[in-house]
Structure formats: C-alpha cells, structure tokens
Known about the structure:
- The complex is a heterotrimer of chains A (591), B (163) and C (621).
- Helix content of chain B is 47%, strand content 11%.
- Chain B has 163 residues and is an alpha+beta fold.
- The N and C termini of chain C lie far apart (69 Å).
- Chain C is α/β, with parallel strands linked by helices and 621 residues long.
- Chains in contact: A-B, A-C, B-C.
- One FE2/S2 (inorganic) cluster is lined by residues 36-37, 41, 43-47, 65-66 of chain A.
Amino acid sequence: MSLVNIKIEGRPYQVEEGLTILEAARQCGYEIPSLCSFNHGECNQGSCRVCLVEATGARGLAASCVYQVAEGMEVLINSPKAVAARRTSVELLLSNHNVNCQQCGKSGQCELQNVARIVGAREGMFKGAKTPTTYDDVSPSIVRDTSKCILCGRCVERCKNAHGNGVLGFQNRGFDAKVGPAMDISFADSPCIMCGQCVTVCPTGALLPKSEIDKVDFARAQGKYMVVQTAPAVRAALGEEFGLPIGTPVTGKMAAALRRLGFNRVYDVDFGADLTIMEEANELLDRVKSGGVLPMITSCSPGWVNYAETYYADLLPHLSSCKSPHQMQGAIIKSYFAQAHGLDPKDIFVVSIMPCTAKKSEKDRAQMEVDGIRDVDAVLTVCELGDLIKRSGMQFNRLPEEGFDYDIMGTSTGAGVIFGVTGGVMEAALRTAYRVLEGKEHDAVVFNAVRGFDGIREATIAMGGMDVKVAVASGMANAKILLDQIREGTSPYHFIEIMGCPGGCINGGGMPIVRHCFLPNEDVDIVDTYRAKRARALYTEDERNTLRQSHNNPQIIELYSRFLEKPNSHKAHELLHTTYAGREPFRVQDH
Amino acid sequence: MARLSGASVARIEEICDAYQGEKTPLVMILSDIQREFGYVPLEVQEVVSRKTGLSVAEIYGVVTFYSFFSLTPKGKHVIGCCLGTACYVKGAQRIIDRFCNDLGIEPGGTTDDGMFTIDALRCIGACAAAPAVTIDGKVYARVDISQVPGIISAYRQMEGGAE
Amino acid sequence: MYATTEELQRDVQRFMDELHGKFDGSDGKTYLVFCGGTGCMAGGTPDLIAEARKLIADEGLEESVVTRRVGCFGLCSQGPFVRIYPGDILYRLVKAEDMYDIIHKHIIGGEIVERLIYEDPKTGEKFEHMADIPFYRRQKRIALHGCGVIDPTRIEESLAMGGYQGLMRALTMDRQDVIDTIIASGLRGRGGGGFPTGRKWQFAYNQDSAEKYVVCNGDEGDPGAFMDRSLLEDNPLSVLEGMAIAGYAIGASQGYFYIRAEYPIAVQRVNAIIEQAEERGLLGDNILGTGFSFHAHVRLGAGAFVCGEETALLNSIMGLRGMPRPRPPFPAVSGLWGKPTVVNNVETLSCTAYIMREGIEAFTQYGTENSKGTKVFCLGGKVVNVGLVEMPMGYTMRDLIFDIGGGIQDDKEFKALQTGGPSGGCLTPEYLDEPIDFDNMVRLGSMMGSGGAIVMDEDNCMVDVAKFYMGFICDESCGKCSPCRIGTKRMLEILERITSGKGTMKDFDELDTIAEACKTNSLCALGQTAANPILSTIAHFKDEYIAHIEEHRCPARVCKDLIEYHIDPDKCRKCSACARVCPVFAIEGVAGKTPFVIDLEKCIKCGTCVTACRFDAIYKA
Ligand SMILES: Cc1cc2nc3c(=O)[nH]c(=O)nc-3n(C[C@H](O)[C@H](O)[C@H](O)COP(=O)(O)O)c2cc1C
Ligand code: SF4
Ligand code: SF4
Ligand code: SF4
Ligand code: SF4
Ligand code: SF4
Ligand code: SF4
Ligand code: SF4
Ligand code: SF4
Ligand code: FES
Ligand code: FES
Ligand code: FES
Ligand code: FES
C-alpha cells in the first residue's frame, strides 16, 4: 500500500492510499460526525450527507465516508461551511423524523440523537409534512417503526450480506421512500428469519427488538415463581451496556444482578446446552448407525430453523429434532425442577436472557410446550436486561461476583459455554461423540478446525472406526452453499452446524449495539473485531472450566439417571425434542 | 392472496427465460410483464424472484421506484395528461384538475368501475399541441378545458355501446 | 452483408442516386412527403396520408405519385405538413379536406394551392419553399442531419445521407487520433453538463480493461423537450454510428441505448436500425472487414427522471433502482458492471458522427470560442413558432425567440425564457442580446441544459413556475440522500404556502438555507441544482413573490387560491352557456332574464366557464 500526503485542518499526515477521508481522519485522531456509514460500506453509499467536509478536488463538499483521500488533499472538518452543512443535513432529517427520544427504545444509544447533539442541530428548524409511516409490531421479535428511519440502508445491506437473499429493501422513491419488506408487509408475514441482524446495525430506533419487559413485570406482580436463565453469549456482552470494554466477561455480576432483580432462581443455559449435546450427539450416532437421514444439521438456532422451514422445507428431515438449549432447559424446569421443589408448573415463569431476537419467536412456536405448559414464558435480549438493571437502580459495575444457583442444574461445562460462538456446538458435540464412540476423551479438547470466522469451515475426525466429516456455517448466505450440496446429493458431511447469525450468537440480534460514535477511541475496524473479542471471552471461560465435556457434567448425569433415563429416551423425546413444518415465504392473506 | 393461474405463471416464466442471455435484465422483464398483464403484483414478483434469484424485496423496490410499473391494474382507458413545461405554461394543470374532478380520482388513480386511470405525463413530444392529452395512446391536441366532459362521455358511450 | 468498405461504398452510391431521385424528379415520380413527428401525427398526419392514398388510387396514379413519411420538420406549430417533390413546395396546417386540392390542383393541375402556403404572421410574406421561411433560414442542421428528410425506417436512405461515412473514416485512423479529432472539434456534451466529449473518451481510453462499454443516454427527462426523441426517431443511424465511433475510440465492443419507455417509436426505430445494420454487416463482429467489432443493445427506462443522471442510468441498466451513486469513481473508470464506460447524450453522439464525416472545420466554423458547433433546442411555450430548432451556438436569445421563434404569441409581453429544465433558470428581457452558449448561460444564472427552451409571457406567474419545477423535482428525487429527499419537499411546501397566500417574509430565509444545503450537500446533480428555478425566479421576480406574500395577490392571476372568478353583469348576455359547463353548478341565473352570477362559495376555480363564455364576460380578479 502506498502512502499519500494529506492535510487535515492544516496539519500534515501520511495515510494509506485508498482510504476514505473518514477512515483516514480516524487514523489521524479525528472523528467526523457521520450517520449512515457502516462497516466498510455496508450501507446506502453516501446517503445521509452528514459526514461532509471541505476537501480540495471535490465538487462542493465531500461526503467523507465515500470520498477517497488523494495526494495533496487538504481536508477541513471544522470550517464554517462544513459545520453549517452538516447541521442542515441533520436538521432536515429531524424535520421528517418522529422525534420523541424520551420514549424511544434507542435513546442514549441512538446515532441520530448523538450526531444531532454533536452538530448542534435544532429540532423544528424546518417544519412540514412527514413521510407516511409504517409501524409493525406484529412479529414476536422485531418492531419496525419507519417514522424513525433515516434510510441509511445498513439493515438492507446487512440482511443481504448475512442471508444472501435479503428480506429488506428500499421502496418507493423521493419523499415517499421507505425501507421494509416487500409490499411493506409485516415481518411476521415475510420471509424474515427474525435473526435481528438488521436491528444490530440500525443507527436509530427504527428497528428494535420487541420488548417483553412488561410481560416479566406482570408475572412478577402476579407472584409467579420466577426462574431466569441466561444464554452463553450474554455474559460476553452485557458489560458493554455498562461501558465496559467489548469482550469483558461479566458472568458473576450478571448472576448477582439477576438475583437482585427478584428472580427466585438464576440458571445458566449452559446446562441446557450440555443437555442438548447429550441428545444431539446421541441422535447423530443413532442416525449414523441406523442409516438415518444424513447429514444431520443442528437445530439450536431459531433463525436458521426459520430459514429452513421457509426455503428448504425438503431438507427438514436433516434437522436434529432437538429443541434449542433454553427450550430444553425450560421444559426441564417445568417438570424435573418443579417436581423436585413441589411447585405447580403453572406457577413458574421462565425468562430466558438471550443474545437473540429469533428466540422470542421460537418460544411462541406451537411445538414449544408439553401438555399445555409452555417451555419458556418470556425472552429478553441483552439490551433489555441492561435496561432492567439500569431501571432497578443497581450500579452494575459495583456488584459483587456471584454464582448461578447450584441445585439441580447449576453445573455446566466449557462445552456449553462455547455454544455462543459459531463452531461451538460442533466442537461440543465432537467432544461428546468422540467419547461415546471411542470410550475415551479426545486428546486435544479443542477442535481448532471448526473455530474462527470463515464463512464455512470443515473438518474430518477419525472416531469409531470411521472418518466423521463435519462442516460449520453461519449466516444463511454461507449455509445455502452447504444446503444446496445436500439437495444435489453431493454433500460429503455427516454433521453440519448452522447458526443464523454470521459469527453465531455473539453477533446475535439481541446483543448490544457496537458503534464508533460511542466508542471513538476504539480501533478503526471496531465493527470487525468485536465478534472476535466476544468470542475470546467465551473461549476463555471454556478454558477456565474444569469440566469441558457435556457428558462429564454431574448434574446432567444425575438428570438422566433420576428423570430422563437415557439420551433419546421416550421421556427425553417428549420434553426435549420437537418437529418442523414448511411454510410460505409470504403469508399475506390479501393486500 | 389471489393465486396466479398456471398459464400466467408459465407466461411469466417464459418472459424471464427470453432474457436469459442478458446480464441483469430485471427492468426489461418487469416492463414486458407490465405491458402484458397491466400490473406487477406480489404474486408475479415472487415468480420473477424464483426465476431470477433476486429477492422479492429488491424486485418490489424496483417496481415501486419506476412510475411505469403499477401494483394494481390500470383502468380500461388511460388518460395521460401532459404536465411537461410547455403544456404547463399553457394551462395543463387546469386540464388534469378538471379530469380529476369529473372522475373523482387523483392523478395516478383509477375509477371504481375500472374504466379510467389518470396519469400525469411529462413531455410527450407534442409541445406544439400544448396542452396535450393522450388517451390510450391517441394524442388530443390543444385541449380546451370545456372539452373535458365531452371526451369523458364519448369514452363512456363507447363502452355503453359495446355492452 | 458487406464484407469490405468498398462493397458498402458501391451500394451507397446507388442509394444516393435513388434518394436524389426522390427529390429532383429524376426518377419520374411525384412525392408527397408527410411529417411523421409526434406533433403532426397528433394533428392528423395519418388521416392525411389515408386521404391522399385514396385520392391517388381514385385517380389511378399509384405508379407515379408516392407518399412518404419522414421525421419532424421542426416547425411543429404549423403542422401537419405536406411537402411536394419535385419542386419542394411546402404546405402547412393541412387538413384531410385539403388533400383534394393538393392532389387535383397541384399534382394533377400543376398549380400551387395558395391558401396552404406558409405565410409570415407578421409581414404577411408567403414562402413556397421551406428553406426560405425565416424559422429555417438561420438554422444549421448538424446533429439533426437527415432528420425530416429521410425515411428513418430504411437504412438505405440514412446511408445515402452520409451515414457510416464518419465511422469508416474513423476505422482508417488510429484510435488516439479519433479521440484527438473529437478533442480538437471542441465538442461538449449535449446532455446538459457540457463536459468535453473528447476528454471523457480519453479517460476511458486510458483505462486498462478488456471490457468497456458505450452508453447512449436517451432518457431525455426534461419535461418540455423532445430533441433526443426526434433524433432517435428520425435518423437513428447517426446516433448508432456515433456510438460505434466512441466504441472504436475507447476500445469498447458493446454499446447500450438507454431510451425512455415513453418513447415507443424511438425504441422501435432504434431496434429496427440495429437489425438492419446487423443484416448488412455494419454491426457485429469484424465490421466491414476492419477487425473492429461492435454490438448494440437497447435498454428501456421505466419512468424516472433521475435515470438521466449517469450513475443512476447505469444502475438502471443493471436492473436496479435508479439511484445515483457517489462519484468518483466516474463511469469512465468504473461504469457498467464495474467496467470503464462512456456515457454520452444522443445529440453528442450524432455530432461525433458528423465531425468524423465532415471534418473538424465543418463543425468548428459554427459556435463560439468555448462552445463549438450547434445546439438543438425545443422551443416551446408562448412563442409563435413552437418546434425543434438547431442553431449555431452564440446566437442571441433575441435571435432564438424573435427571429427564429417569430416572437410572442398574441403580441403579449415577453417575460422570461426558461432553459436547462428543472436544473436551469430563467433569463429575462434584459438579456435578450446575450449570446447563448454553455458558459454564458451559466454566467447569466441559468444553464444550457439539454435544450428545453420555454418562453413565458405576462400571463405566467413566476412563483407558480418555480413551484411547478419544484413539484417535478420533488416527485422525481430518488430519495436516497437526505438534503434532496427532504429539502425539495420542504421547498415545495414553502412555495405552496406562498402561492396560497400563506407565506411570510421569513420563508425567504428558509428557502435560502435549504437551497444552499441542497446545492452543497446533495449526492447528485439533481439535488445540487434542484433549487435553481427558485433562486433564479427570486433573483429576477422577487416582486412577484412579495405580491403573493404581502398582498396575497397573484399578479399574473394564475395561483388558484388568490383569484376569484366573476361575471361582469354589463357584459353578460344571459346566454347560460357558462352555467351549463360548470362542473359544480356554481353559476346561477335565468337564461335571457338576469345576468349570471358565480357563487364564490361553490366555485372550484376550474376556469371552464371562462372559455365557455363567448362574450368575454367572465374575468379573474
Ligand atoms: C438529474 C439529471 C438528469 C439528467 N438527464 C439527462 C438526460 O435526460 N439526457 C442526457 O443526455 N443527460 C442527462 N443528464 C446528464 C448525464 O448525467 C450525463 O452527464 C450525460 O448523459 C453525459 O453525456 P454528454 O457528455 O454527452 O452530455 C442528467 C443529469 C442529471 C443530474
Ligand atoms: S430514533 Fe433516536 S433521535 Fe429518533 S426518537 Fe429515537 S432516540 Fe430520538
Ligand atoms: S433533556 Fe431536557 S428536554 Fe429532554 S427530557 Fe430532559 S429535561 Fe426534557
Ligand atoms: S431479522 Fe434477519 S432476516 Fe429478518 S429482516 Fe432482519 S436481518 Fe433480515
Ligand atoms: S431501518 Fe434503521 S438501518 Fe434500516 S434504513 Fe432505516 S435507519 Fe437505517
Ligand atoms: S445465531 Fe444465535 S443469535 Fe443468531 S439467530 Fe441463531 S440463536 Fe439467535
Ligand atoms: S440528490 Fe436527489 S436524486 Fe440525487 S441521489 Fe440525492 S436524493 Fe437522489
Ligand atoms: S371557474 Fe369553474 S367552478 Fe368556478 S364557476 Fe367557473 S366553471 Fe364553475
Ligand atoms: S356564458 Fe358569458 S354571457 Fe353567457 S351567461 Fe355566462 S357569463 Fe353571461
Ligand atoms: S460509507 Fe457513507 S454511506 Fe456508506
Ligand atoms: S453520507 Fe457519509 S456518513 Fe452518511
Ligand atoms: S410539454 Fe407537453 S408535449 Fe411537450
Ligand atoms: S412534428 Fe411535424 S413539424 Fe414537428
């Protein structure tokens, strides 16, 4: 890469050729207010016109997020002309915006709010009609409110990048332009898989997870027996809600906070993950032995399950029949746990804290109940938990480190915790499958081949006298490649892990928002590295755990011996397994 | 949702296939469909999506971007009022207003009986004939506002006579 | 299928002889040439042709008297036309019933039909020949060469008019020499921007890429202009030739025509000419044995003005929403499917064919220092001669409006000339003697644009005109970037306020702020120039704005909310004609008894009654 000489605010710098002015300025220690720009152009290229600067060679002002530096360029960020222009751009945006920050779910983390403040935009400078809006809160997972949309296009690009065939698109033109699913229909009627990737990139409150805090409050007020369980990825990110650096594990403080929020029991879904591994690894071995449908594909990511049901209904027999860990654990809480404590399952209210918006709809699936008792009653995202904690008055960072409740399902293994990152389920399953087939633990606990963030990873492991071929994919764009192989009959694999979100749950739709504008001193590729940092937090927790294989979890062993008999038993099937059904991409009755 | 007949699906697929040699022919495919079917509803977009591999969201985005495409059927007679500059400065706005008033619809709208659609056009190349109006492609030159009711009833009568 | 240039040239000679025969009588036939332009077709050309054929058949003259249909003659307001060869006699404002005299008196009797001869409305002077009419006298057809003369559906006639001679010359030259020729000709883009064409080609030439493209921009979005349409309909081969020349020069073998879907005839003609050219080996692989290969494709627009903007156009060709993207990279570097692409306007390409054929000198002898050659204008509005004008750059506005255009209709007062369409501005009477060229137009606060030239008179409200353009831009904004998407809407709202008498003087400041933001902040030129019609009307007609704001008065009596319709009881002859046409029954009176009266509560100000009253009794106030 050759270097070019530029000046910013009159000071000379050398930067790499090919960078945008915005990227170059960041490297030189400047943060230009910007709004639509995101992750190497994962946006509607240069549309908000907030990042304008004066730059020699540019006609008028240059949009710094797309305009590249050139030799001898002089950039002025703070000139009166640039300052005024940025302000007017934001004021125009505000004139077509439903500005009610006080009640907005994005307040405090909203890039528009932040940038408006920084550029000194005055609300109400320009008055006039607003674009007709759509408010969609029909799906259990996501609320879309176009009155807050700035048409940055990040969600469109993210959905497309993650899943290949995007659900979101621009529609209409001019002042009527909007972003949404085709025909502007509800997410609920669209091929949306509820993964919430779009939510994580939205700079404003236009896309938000659907809150279930009220539901939890109501149950508590009714005096329900409150049980909470947290997914593996949550501990790796909750700290971000309280200003801790990305990738800080906060397992202990989280448990403390949940207990102080009044939950009667605080459990870790890692236990459920261990249970899933027991069931899934044995199901795999069953299929291999009995000539069942192969490759078998994991089913713990509801985003992926939604996709399979929509676009690959013919491959549904390939999906493991296992419920996802929190659903399994919910079912166990309402049976095994309830019995043990003499509780009526109807009085128990199970709340899952998830990195995921799809889990909100998963828990509502008709199949997710046993004898009329729902497995899980509410799903909160990491952000919602953060809100609950803030609301309660707790100072999170000053909480003591506590543990999860110990009884019945308080132990978990490192295998359970890595579920939160792509490849984790595979690795955990291999650890157990190896043991079952070989009768001993694998020499190396870690299966490096399935780790990392490449779109597709594969490995061959010799066990039980055969070469077991596995593959891992996250994001539907990658999954599609493996699925089409199966369709064409060319898939060489026995077992495939698929996660809805690129990178897995550490990048889930319910995770905290990561933005430059809120963390201006972070690396230039903050958005690319946060996944790695969160993943690191989980792998570290795995390494620290003395138990690293699901089958070595003593409470799992106890659960089987006292209640479920053995993996894939009749009882286990009743509680822990589920079914799937194909569905139409568009479920519009009449339009 | 109204289902497409097998014949319609086959025809749409045929149109898509006709452009197989072309790079990125979406707009052409949609234009052909619009011309032949008169509109491009969601069901049609789904077929095009299957054939082209483009997402329905993207196709819908294209359909709603270009004013040539319509999501609902147009009327039997399409009244195009030129609102190009040359026509506008000669009072074209009053002509379209009067058509809208008499038919009780907005520009772009279709009457309830499906008889008329009013479209606002931009220069149709007949500036010398300003203000110009086209009905089903036939150009009416130098339209005077008092002719409007007569034009409408002529088309209505034509329909009446045909029944 | 011509395998070599020599083969083609032999045929061209024959085509030329044939074509001349149609004009000078050497083939022993009489030709009735009809204008097939949109204006005349709407005015009844098809009926004229049918009638003529019938009369010819009645007289048994089918062998010796032939009808021909060619493109727009230019003087559309005098159409429909019939031009008779040999003799080159022009008849105008012809009706079907006039055909009888034309056939019997002129064709059979050899006598000119006096009443159908063009008569100068001012001097009363009569002109039998088209070229003598003042409207045509000072024009020069370079881009429009062959238009209105040849039958555009027959490639032979176009070839006879010199079609493909420019390309053949280019093919004997070095590619760089072709580019140098265009640079030396000083040709600037006719699509509006005026960017030097040769330099654009040079950029694309300099790119190292095996795959390059030429795109002909035939989107013609200016809502009052149809120059490109005429060119594509009336001599499509000249544009195709220009495209192939560009392809040769930059090293492209593929060309795309992007044509508005609203121009079905243009599309049909271009497709037909491509087909004919392919059949004859003038398009395709190894053209005329020169080793140069070029293929042309047609893509249709689908009703979006912004697709005239080059990056939006490329997106549209690529099947996407026509939203512009930031430049750089310019299309010459990264265009269609990421490959170097030259985008040129229809007229620009036609000019390159002319330059390559006739030489640099033939082009540069017209025009001004920095604007060489001619420009086609679509003269419209309140001018006497409405139509298509191609004149050398540097003529003054007075030349255009009063000399060529014949002055203002009904002897009204000239108020403004609007050029540059929605991106342009108004030029007022004080500039009448300013020359029209790229740079001077910008200096005067407007722009050349693609050639729309609309004349306004005292009856036009300039605030209303500004609102018209802003409404257009607001409708046509792609909606991608915030200043244009929202700013144009806000400006339109302000103009709506002002024209309905609800404006305040503060609105000027707001307009100013938004206009400035649109100009500096917008992504593409649509937004960047969106405020021009407002700024230019404020600059010249601020008093009209103030009248609307402070006095709630529309001086030109156009703005509906500020006028009322009244009947002058002294003039009313109680005929009841007005009451019968009123769509809302707002006019009361008893026929023959009392003067009629308009109920102002009911009146929707449609204006129908005014045209219905034969006694001029109804007035606006
Ligand atoms: C909003 C907008 C509309 C335009 N419309 C047209 C058009 O209709 N025809 C055209 O040739 N150029 C149009 N242009 C200019 C083109 O972007 C481009 O500059 C031109 O086609 C280049 O060709 P030229 O150099 O031969 O003029 C438009 C530009 C803008 C910003
Ligand atoms: S989206 Fe942002 S600016 Fe808009 S209301 Fe919500 S917090 Fe405020
Ligand atoms: S910041 Fe000010 S305006 Fe906003 S809620 Fe608080 S007191 Fe009200
Ligand atoms: S939730 Fe996922 S699938 Fe649905 S629109 Fe958002 S990114 Fe696309
Ligand atoms: S919904 Fe959010 S991410 Fe999507 S375009 Fe609107 S503001 Fe951007
Ligand atoms: S990968 Fe995780 S966060 Fe994403 S949809 Fe699947 S379960 Fe939810
Ligand atoms: S200036 Fe207008 S037309 Fe151009 S990109 Fe922006 S919104 Fe679209
Ligand atoms: S202007 Fe129209 S509505 Fe008013 S009185 Fe005349 S015809 Fe009737
Ligand atoms: S048409 Fe004229 S003259 Fe006749 S009643 Fe009406 S106003 Fe009077
Ligand atoms: S980088 Fe600015 S819009 Fe994408
Ligand atoms: S245009 Fe650069 S951040 Fe939006
Ligand atoms: S403006 Fe109406 S035909 Fe040209
Ligand atoms: S259309 Fe006949 S002269 Fe223009």
